[in-house]
Amino acid sequence: GAGVSQTPSNKVTEKGKYVELRCDPISGHTALYWYRQSLGQGPEFLIYFQGTGAADDSGLPNDRFFAVRPEGSVSTLKIQRTERGDSAVYLCASSAGVGGTYEQYFGPGTRLTVT
Amino acid sequence: AQSVSQHNHHVILSEAASLELGCNYSYGGTVNLFWYVQYPGQHLQLLLKYFSGDPLVKGIKGFEAEFIKSKFSFNLRKPSVQWSDTAEYFCAVTRNTGGFKTIFGAGTRLFVKA
Fold first, then answer.
1. What is the pLDDT along chain B (114 residues), one digit of tens a residue?
2. Residue of B nearest to A59 (CA)
3. Count of CB atoms situated within 10 Å of the CB of B27
4. Half-sphere exposure of B50 toward its Cβ, with a 13 Å CA cutoff?
């Protein structure tokens, strides 16, 4: 079956611009997670959704970052006024439920480069 | 705050050598523990997980990990590595209560020489 997909696979933008990154989870998965992975580091938690609501957004670095999941399926991570330090691979994962007993399935990521 | 430490950032082994990758976490409550692997050019995928019960868990491709609660450790082992095990390995922890965000370690890059 189809896995988690993310678009675009690569995004190059200029400092100060606005970007949107999209995640399509596995059909039927209620939980969706966003991570950011910088070079040489592990994935860093940003936010996760249970259904349409953000259950924990404590990992969002500042108010330039925002994520939505209006219908409980597709999610969009939005970054305003991008900075060079935002350059990273943004990973999305989904799972059939919330909690550590549920396996997270990861997408291929979106590589964001801010010039 | 929750954190995960992986002691080895880069490991180079010859085929048939034994592997042990260290992982320690800092959280006093009940946790679920994971090892994920990322092969070159592929997505992160689950290697094995521990929730409860037998502290020695077995995963795919001959990997196993042992949860030692007193040491807050969850080390990954494989008795005999293959060239195809060349990948990056990440240890991760999820709290069992009060929020389920997952914290990852920085990763260990393993290179197996043929």
1. 779 999 889 999 999 999 999 999 998 788 899 999 999 989 999 999 998 899 999 999 999 999 999 999 999 999 999 999 999 999 999 887 666 788 999 999 999 998
2. B101
3. 16
4. 26
| Distance separating alpha carbons of residues A88 and A71, to the nearest angstrom | 27
Rounded to whole angstroms, the Cα distance separating A21 from A62 reads 17
Please give the pLDDT value at position B52: 87
Selected residue of B10, B101, B109 to mutate for chain A interface (largest A Cβ count, 10 A): B101
Find, among A13, A7, A23, the residue nearest to A72 by Cα: A23
Select from A39, A106, A110 the residue whose CB has the most chain B CBs within 10 Å, as the one to mutate to test that interface.
A106
In angstroms, rounded to a whole number, what is the distance separating the alpha carbons of residues B91 and B6?
A: 7
pLDDT (0 to 100) of residue A97: 84
Task: Give me the residues paired with residue B64 across strands.
Answer: B58, B77
Does residue B71 contact residue B24 with C-beta atoms inside 8 Å? yes
Interchain proximity B44–A91, CB inside 8 Å: yes
Question: Which region, left, alpha or beta, applies to residue B55 given φ > 0 means left and ψ of -120 to 50 means alpha?
Answer: alpha
Altogether, the residues listed in chain B come to a count of 114
A88-95 and A31-37 strand pairing: antiparallel
Q: B74, B23 in Cβ contact below 8 A?
A: yes
For A54-76, write each residue's pLDDT tens digit: 989 999 999 999 999 999 999 99
